[in-house]
Amino acid sequence: MDFSTMWLYPNEALVRVKGKRGLEVINTPDGLYDKIKESGKDKISFKYKVDDEPCRIETVNSVNGTSFVIRKLMHDLKPLVELGMPVKVAERLMDPKLNGLVIFAGLQGVGKTTCGSSLLLERIKKYGGSAQVLEDPPELDLDGIYNNGVIQQIDVHERNYANIRINEELGYYASRALRADTDIVYLGEVLRSSEAKEVVTHSGNGALIITTIHASSVSMAIERLINLAGKNSEFMLSTTLSAIIYITLRTLNSGKRFMHVSPLFCDSPTVRIAIKEMNFDAVENYAQQQTNSILTGS
């Protein structure tokens, strides 16, 4: 079945084909609504296979009843460069000594999760070791053994409606991951204060921490993370933040879209001082300088 997203109702469905904006109305595939309803009983989000393809299901209880939003999960993930990441940025992200916190930032739908997951998968395939993906729920199909490495995906909030959110859960799983000799921890998307605090706290534990955040610039990503994580988080972040990769999608005259990347690698004392002092104008200037230098080779 050709779709990237499906809005599933008892008697009809709407589908969006990848790369197209409009929706197409189709008949509900035979038995699919009832199967998903039974499989996802009392769950707000869960994984399910449609035509043997892994999908993420979101339960929507609207005024007219229950429907489901079905998104196909990417399970043939490309390396960073093939996704459109500039070679020099990808090379620095693949540095075997990289640790601390790496953030992929941008607005919705630009590929933050895809790039973060690609980095994790590429490093595990190249260097081996262990990784845990803590998401709500997992958006890509990564769980498995890879030659000399392993990735374990954990659905942090797979609970019934009575216990949808428990703030301590992410910290609990992150602590368990690090106690399990995990080399890379992917901590889903930062949306709330509890998640921001866990990301900042665990970024200083020696492992590589990868996460994503909604933001409109490099400096806004740092400012938002600090505001969510709370007082004094800027001090730890100034020592543990390794890189922010800000992603936007741009359109050529031909209509083809491409990834534009503004990176900030925090290996300079001046960058770290700007973060500690919450001088976000300076942070943005450093990001622009690095973008010009890295992407033009100057």
Overview of this protein structure:
The protein has helices at residues 32-39, 80-83, 87-93, 112-127, 168-179, 193-202, 218-229, 233-240, 269-276, 280-296, and strands at 5-8, 12-16, 24-27, 45-50, 53-62, 65-72, 100-106, 129-135, 144-146, 149-155, 184-190, 208-214, 241-251, 257-265. Residues 159-167 have low confidence and may be disordered. With 298 residues, the chain is α/β, with parallel strands linked by helices. Helix content is 34%, strand content 32%. It has two domains: 5-72, no CATH class; 80-296, Rossmann fold (3-Layer(aba) Sandwich). Helix 6 (193-202) packs across helix 7 (218-229). The chain is built from ten helices and 14 strands. Strands 9-10-8-11-12-7-13-14 form an eight-stranded mixed beta sheet, sandwiched between helices. A six-stranded antiparallel beta sheet has the order 3-2-1-6-5-4, with helices on one face.
Strand order of the largest sheet: 9-10-8-11-12-7-13-14
The rounded distance between the terminal residues' Cα atoms is 47 Å
How many structurally independent domains?
A: 2
| Coarse shape | globular
Kindly provide the name of the CATH class of the largest domain: Alpha Beta
Strand content: 25-35%
Largest sheet: 8 strands, mixed
Number of extended strands: 14
Overall SS class: alpha/beta
Mean pLDDT, all residues: 87
CATH architectural arrangement of the largest domain: 3-Layer(aba) Sandwich
| Poorly predicted segments | 159-167
